[in-house]
Amino acid sequence: MLNTFDILETIRMIQEECLDIRTITMGISLLDCIDPDIDKACQKVYDKITSRAENLVRTGEQIEKEYGIPIVNKRISVTPIAMLAAACPDENPVKFAHTLQRAADTCGVNFLGGYSALVHKGFSAGDLALIRSIPQALSETTNVCSSVNIGSTRSGINMDAAALMGEIVLESAKATSDRQCIGPAKLVVFCNAVEDNPFMAGAFHGVGEPDCEIHVGVSGPGVVRAAIEKYPDASIDELSDFIKKTAFKITRMGQLVGSRASKMLDVPFGIVDLSLAPTPAVGDSVAYILEGMGLEQCGTHGTTAALALLNDAVKKGGVMASSNVGGLSGAFIPVSEDAGMIAAAQDGTLCLEKLEAMTAVCSVGLDMIVVPGDISAATISAIIADEAAIGMVNNKTTAVRLIPAIGKKEGDMLEFGGLLGSGPVMPINRKSPAKFISRGGRIPAPMHSIKN
Amino acid sequence: MRAVITVIGKDTIGILHKVSGICANHNANVIEVTQSVMQDMFAMIMMVDLSGMSADFSSLSDEMTALGNAEGLTIHCMHEDIFNSMHKI
Question: What is this model's ipTM?
Answer without folding.
Answer: 0.83
